[in-house]
Amino acid sequence: MPLDTNQTRRTAPTSLALTAFVVTLGACRGADSTPADTLDAGSDATGDVGPSTGSDAGPFAEPDAGPDAGPPPPRLNWTRDVEHVDLNLDFEAMHGEATITLGPSPDDGAAFEAGDLDVTEVVDADTGASLAYRVKDATLAIGVPAADTPHRVTVSYGFRSQTEVGGWLGGDGVTFLWPTYCGYLFPCRSAPSEGATFSLRVEGVPADAVAIYPPEIPTEAPTYMPAVAIGAFERIDLGETSAGTRLAVWHGPGEADDARAGTARLVPAFDFLERTYGPYAYGAEAGTVSAPWAEDATGGMEHHPFWHVGRDDLGNEEVNIHEAAHGWFGNGVRIACWEDFVLSEGTTTYIAGRAAESAGLDLWPEYACFLSFDCDPANDTNTIALLDTCDVIELETHPLWSTVPYMKGAFFYREVAEVLGVAMLDEVIAAFYATHVGRAAHMEDMLTALRAAAGDRAAEIDALADAWLRSLECPRDYAELCDAG
Ligand SMILES: [Zn+2]
Question: Checking CA distances to 338, which of 305, 345, 393, 406 falls within 20 to 30 Å?
Fold first, then answer.
């Protein structure tokens, strides 16, 4: 999450890096919410149109043209799966090449969000043949044939440094794609259920800077996960977990003490996450990158394996451990709908609390203070943590974008642990992760798993879910736990 818990939020719960952004795009185009094979059949043809593909291959030719009709015209096919994205980004030329592996599809075409990308060419990555494309309303439609095997296309484009929306924040030297801004860096689909594997190459890095990014993201991840940070970073090795994952922290000038303090217990906490919930899915090396966000350099953003922590929170162990724990929930298991935000943030807050506790750090009094703040009607920050719709809300402007899913979610799990026992709850979370890693899931799927584990006490799980997740009023505010901290 970009908005991680920090002390300032206790009194100013709206602070965060993202709050400065203005949404200029409409809601994301999720595969679930967009009809298959939609023909963008506007007749005005005001968009940028790629190379002509033959006499009757205009952008809106008949979809069932025969095999002799030449390459197909651009078509907004949102249901064609995106399996892998290979990104080559040049931050000097501000030029990108995205080679996208499309899944088999009975229908031709493919569609992507394209922010304000300047698409200059689309080719078949295997033959080099030009493909027709069209950009309109920040949407890229490609003419690519139906296929019963994966098919690779390469999109060449220019991208811009952003200040009002996400994308490449050139002034800060970091990318920031959450929640719906991936299309400002590469052609993508920002629905949270969308997942792909990624590979990255970065060029055009100034001589006095280094680029921190993962060459490979080997397990399917949400499309906001690829991240690049370019700056005068220095690396501190933190050591290895018992599973052999190497952890590190990358910090800017003068930040070494904060970097060491904030990651002091990261190795044992990460080790606990691996041993308790399952193998880390994003490679053999991971760690924190200090993010110099200009607007509000607090909180963090779960770009795995190299997650970003606002430099003002670099010394905050809670933020570092929380972002690490997103490797299991939010990223490893991604959310099916924005309304399932609590599956990402509530679960992560709980397992981060377990990991910190195992490493000798009790985060629960701090959690309780956030909860107590949200539960106080005078603060007007409380909201319902779990909604029944799917991708109807715009998260950035909805009340759900708050600390409520984090804290009501965490205390929901804490009270579930009183029913199941802490160890059995860990086992349920681990089994859920094993089943869903690399895939999207609903919070309701987690509730089903908890009910099954509870057996004849399943009604107590439902009662806790109703009280903590589906009600506005807090069943308990844990003020005494806050005060005890
Ligand atoms: Zn988070």
Answer: 305
Beta strands in 103-244 (DSSP E): 110-113, 118-124, 133-136, 139-142, 151-158, 167-169, 174-176, 195-203, 210-212, 216-222, 229-231, 234-240
- DSSP letter string, 1-23: --S---HHHHH-TT--GGGG---
Q: 405 CA to middle of ligand 1, Å?
A: 10
Query: What is the distance in A from the centroid of ligand 1 to the CA of 329?
Result: 9
Cα of 321 from ligand 1 centre, angstroms: 10
Q: What is the pLDDT of residues 145-176, one digit of tens each?
A: 999 999 999 999 999 999 999 999 999 999 99
Mean pLDDT of the chain: 89
The fraction of the chain above a pLDDT of 90, given in percent, is 85
Residues 255-283 pLDDT 10s: 999 999 999 999 999 999 999 999 999 99
Measured in angstroms, how far is the CA atom of residue 319 from the centroid of ligand 1?
Answer: 8
Task: Please tell me the distance between residue 65's alpha carbon and the centre of ligand 1 in angstroms.
Answer: 48
- How many A from CA of 239 to the centre of ligand 1? 24
CA of 323 to the centre of ligand 1 (A): 6
Rounded to the nearest whole angstrom, what is the distance from the C-alpha of residue 341 to the centroid of ligand 1?
9
Q: How far is the CA of 273 from the centre of ligand 1 (A)?
A: 15
Domains of the chain: 48-61+73-231 (2.60.40.1730), 333-485 (1.10.390.10)
The Å distance, Cα 254 to ligand 1 centre, comes to 26
Cα of 146 vs centre of ligand 1, distance in Å, is 39
- pLDDT value at residue 156: 98
Burial category of 187 from C-beta neighbours within 10 Å (exposed 0-12, middle 13-18, buried 19 and up): buried
d(CA 453, CA 445): 13
Among 346, 310, 407, 262, smallest CA distance to 20 is for 310
> How far is ligand 1, taken at its centre, from the CA of residue 358, in Å?
19
Cα separation of 333 and 460, whole Å? 25
- 8 Å CB contact between 157 and 118: yes
Does 38 score more than 80 pLDDT? no
Per-residue pLDDT tens over the stretch 324-339: 999 999 999 999 999 9
